[in-house]
Amino acid sequence: MELNKRHGYLIQWMIGVGDLIVLNLLFFMVYYGLSDFYTSAITGNLREVVLLLNFCYFFSLYFAPLQLHLSIVFIDKIVQRAFLLVTIMTFLFATCLIFLNVGDVLATFLLVYYVVTIIVFSLWRVFVRVTLKMYRRKGYNFKKIVIVGAGKNGMELYRVMKDDLSYGFNILGFFDDNLSLKSVLPNYLGMTHEVEDFVLANDVDEIYCTLPGTNDEKIVRLLNFAEKHMIRFYIVPEFYRNLKKSLVMEVMESIPLMTVRREPLQAVYNRALKRTFDILFSILVLVTIFPLLYIVVGILIKLSSPGPILFKQKRTGLYGHDFKCYKFRTMKVNAEADSLQAVKNDPRKTKVGDFLRRTNLDEFPQFINVLRGDMSVVGPRPHMLKHTEQYSALIDKYMVRHLVKPGVTGWAQVTGYRGETKTLEQMEGRVKRDVWYIENWSFFLDLKIIVVTVLNMFKGEKNAY
After folding, report:
1. Taking the CB of residue 146, how many other CB atoms lie within 10 A of it?
2. I need a surface site. Which of 32, 150, 186, 453 has the fewest CB within 10 A?
3. Residue range 322-342: average pLDDT?
């Protein structure tokens, strides 16, 4: 076990050294690639400036620590953390240069270095992660673990860990007091009172306990044993068997509390970031694209059928409150607009309206809603009041989607759930993706959704009608 731990620490050090090599190489590439006008301020203090850059990297690790060596890390999180680290490091570096009175002519140098480093450093981090996963698939840098408890939770944990060898788990086997499971388990190691001897004899790194809560004496015994021998101990709660979702632990003084979901947008900083982006992005659209679009589309709508240019409809917004949602009118004026969903080849649609729907152009007036604060650029799509009443009674988590502001576009829409929902299963799929978005929100996820939405506007969507 000691050798395996040292192996893990060595990998972390190698990643850190690799980071420094990449950051310093990029620094010198930008330094020698730009003209003397942009770099002359640091030429006389180049050694000190380079040392300062490396110091800023180490200080930035406090805010964005290395996580590439962990068992499970997703690619988008790697890019996000690389962006965060480079941003903090560059900000600290620039601040220090200003205090050293050498930052007055370095704006261009720092900007070029920042942009180049974000791109290259993100690619470097992704490359390291992919390489580490390949290394682990070959059987290196693994953790030896045992699972205590071979019920449904234990078997599901085993399946997840075995699903991808790159996680770095070497599952030695199961311990369970039910001897009838001995013949059906992948590798039965013994009864629960035999765990301690086996762990010590085989240098086990981690113990995963899936025993029911009624076995509290056994659980406490194993926990105390693991603490005494510096072995990491994990518990899969018994109720996970009935509640198949991620849980978030909070603490009230010394009392642990389990909440059913993580909501990043509950943090004031994240809400402020999202709202600031909404305001800036909506103003940009309303000042540049929307005026011309309103004139051209407005004329076409007026020529296609009598009625207003904008269609206003009450929809369900944040915390279930109603608001007036704006769209370009895509149908003839009809009495069923607030109750009947648009379908394929809908006779109420105009030819202009059909084009507007396929290209998402009908949604542009909703940037007025975004600026007013009724909506966000990205979020679950707002539904008609009738649909909210109907589906909230049929789908358990339907109202969860209203814990955040509705969006002009959303995760469900860019993953195949745009347009008409013909079946309850389709609406459940949309709600599932909306809840996933709420639990996994990040600024980078919003940017990704916006980019995919823009791409879909140009190629058109088959489900948009």
Report:
1. 23
2. 32
3. 78
